[in-house]
Amino acid sequence: MTLATPPTSSPAGADAASDRLRHAYIETIGCQMNVYDSERMLESLSRAGYRRTDRPDDADLIVINSCSVRERAEHKMISMIGGYRTLKEHNPELVLAVSGCVASQEGEKLLRRAPSLDLVLGPDQVTQIGELVGRVRDGRAEGARVRPVEVDFVDRHTYTFATPEAPQDGRVTSFITVMKGCNKFCSFCIVPMTRGREVSKPSADIVTEVEALVRAGVREVTLLGQNVNSYGKDRMARDGSGELDFAGLIAAVAGVDGLERIRFTTSHPMDCSDRLIAAFAEQPKLMPYFHLPIQSGSERVLRMMRRRTVVAEYEARIASLRSLRPDLAMSTDIIVGFPGETEDDFAETMGLIERVGFASIFSFAYSPRPGTAAARIDDDVPKAVKKRRLTELQALQAEITARWMAGFEGQEVEVLFEGPSTAHAAGEESAARMARIGMLPQLMGRTPQNTKVNVETDDYFALRDWPGRLGRVRIDHVGRNSLTGTLLHLLP
Description:
Elements: E1 2-4, E2 22-28, H1 32-47, E3 50-52, E4 61-66, H2 71-90, E5 95-100, H3 101-106, H4 109-113, E6 119-121, H5 129-141, E7 146-150, E8 173-177, E9 179-180, H6 191-194, E10 199-200, H7 203-215, E11 220-224, H8 233-239, H9 246-254, E12 261-265, H10 274-282, E13 289-291, H11 299-304, H12 311-324, E14 329-336, H13 343-356, E15 360-365, H14 383-406, E16 412-420, H15 431-436, E17 442-446, E18 452-456, H16 462-465, E19 470-478, E20 482-490
Parallel strand pairs: 2-3, 2-4, 4-5, 5-6, 6-7, 8-11, 11-12, 13-14, 14-15, 18-20
Antiparallel strand pairs: 1-7, 9-10, 16-17, 16-19, 17-18, 19-20
Helix pairs in contact: 10-12, 13-14
């Protein structure tokens, strides 16, 4: 869909910037899927003659890649549009766009809510952004305001995934989308309405993508999907193609030479199969970190959420995982204040948190999302009660996380170094300059459990040589969210 105002006389200099290099700025809100989508948009824009900028003031195109999973993220996006609107007054060439889940959810309504917006595109249209921005600019050149709205889902039977370009920025970790959408329709969740039904990328394409990433220097990949552990079910059900399930995909990716580590997110307890649990013991490259959202410890609340998850079975799955991989770190999502949640329900959630001993949790106060089943239920838990429960939950988890982190002190851990942890970036200062001012390089890496580790070294070439390498590190200090250690030796 495209909305346009009638042509008027073309303003002088309307295409004055057409012969110069344009710059694009993308503000990414939300999950790793949005991070991945932003990279695909930047690739599309590069082919259309745009260069990335990290300064919105320098941009000729600003894209807000939005999230609608939480009300707060949606409000943040609306606030950003208001802030960027003033930039259009100083730069008549500026195009302002919204992509992502709010775009998919609101569509044309966003244009009415934000008159300064020029373009709205959904997650299925991210690779078309260069063409869509071109339509906006062509309209301007003809004296008309063209405001495309493209948010419809591509038919899942014909949907094709974008082929990413190999990164050239020296990164050693990378996300890979292996599927999109979700079929679960939890009562609080907007994802099936904003991302569509499940579609799995062919496993051969995923392996090819991983091979390209490894050739570019990547050593760790994170497999992404809204419900990633249901990977392959749609393809197997549709055409009996012999496509792999998620455990099979992990094994196929693990076979790529040069890849050191595999992670994945996000999962649903219903799809935590025995084969996936066994993969944590069978695949050394699969890291011992598992994010498995439960949302509540109350069976009654889970039924209202349409989670179809039994708490006892959830805990049994975790016990099986830990029996096979004792070093496994678990994390989860928790929503407090869901409609109808009582103090007893909340107490059951607190009890689950204590029993499982999660390394970390992502916790939220419930907010109704338009179009979901829960939005039709009276939001009867007062905001003050939600806030108090969230505070209590987070305080308990802080204690549990501190105990878990304390277990690293004095231990030797394997760290994959990713890059500098200090304010300066690699290459900004020469080794000689750093030596002269007495500044030791400090690098950041992560343990297999995904815990951040900072290491200081007197090797002034470490910023160049360590990223992508594995090392044995002794942990000397435990912080609130990270560890500090001493390198014992780099691994071959």
